[in-house]
Design a protein that fits this description.
- The chain is mainly alpha-helical and 228 residues long.
- Helices cover 55% and strands 4% of the residues.
- It is built from ten helices and four strands.
- Helix 1 runs antiparallel to helix 2, helix 1 crosses helix 8 and helix 2 packs antiparallel against helix 8.
């Protein structure tokens, strides 16, 4: 019997949903979720011969990033487990510093301002293995276009040339994620800003228990009521 693409997609959704349930019960497993979602995207990116992305290139690491709550919890867990004490403290300090930069910015102001990701250290991501899907799927077919966008963050209409097959793979993986979120009665369109949410988790790790119970953070750190 020949396995169709629909069969493969269904199997992947079921495998991810199973792992999602396990992650709720066994928190360290949450790191597997990002790896499961990102693996097909990474494979598609590796097969694309036209990517301008190279190790050490990090124009995109100054963009506003959002992710599902479990993705950011996975980063929090990874940093605590994989970094030694001095490196962890350095990253935590940088998260606090960058949070101060964006704290009073509106969403639009953040989108149109280059803010270095606090996970970027010496030109590389300290949480690359569990980076959000938004980062794993982000790519470009032109380094010069990325550089221009970096140098002109206030011009949001500028389009980076993308590979359709990678975009399609990202859409497919988001469907996989949405299936599990719906099964747990969690919103499929609710994403959290990376820096502010990491800051919140380091300030109050007990917030993770809210996710395990299927609840939102007490207060969305990127949508405070005092913002304009």
């Amino acid at each position: 019997m020949i396995e169709t693409d629909n069969d493969k997609s269904q199997a992947q959704r079921e495998a991810f949903a199973k792992e999602y349930r396990k992650a709720k019960a066994q928190l360290p497993r949450v790191m597997r979720l990002s790896r499961m979602l990102n693996a097909p995207i990474e494979a598609e990116s590796a097969a694309c011969g036209d990517l301008a992305c190279q190790r050490g290139c990090h124009h995109c690491c100054f963009l506003r990033v959002t992710g599902y709550l479990y993705e950011i919890i996975a980063i929090y867990m990874y940093l605590n487990q994989q970094l030694d004490k001095s490196r962890l403290e350095a990253v935590k300090h940088k998260i606090k510093k960058q949070y101060a930069v964006i704290r009073d910015k509106s969403e639009e102001e953040h989108y149109t301002t280059n803010v270095e990701c606090p996970l970027l250290v010496d030109g590389e991501c300290t949480a690359y293995a569990v980076r959000p899907m938004a980062c794993a799927a982000y790519h470009s077919l032109s380094e010069s276009e990325c550089r221009w966008s970096y140098e002109n963050p206030h011009i949001r209409i500028h389009a980076i040339p993308l590979a359709p097959e990678i975009q399609e793979q990202e859409r497919s993986q988001r469907l996989v994620a949405a299936t599990s979120l719906l099964a747990h009665k969690e919103p499929i369109d609710e994403e959290y800003e990376l820096i502010s949410t990491l800051h919140r988790l380091f300030q109050d790790p007990s917030q993770i228990q809210r996710w395990r119970a299927g609840r939102r953070l007490i207060e969305r750190p990127d949508q405070r009521s005092d913002k304009q």
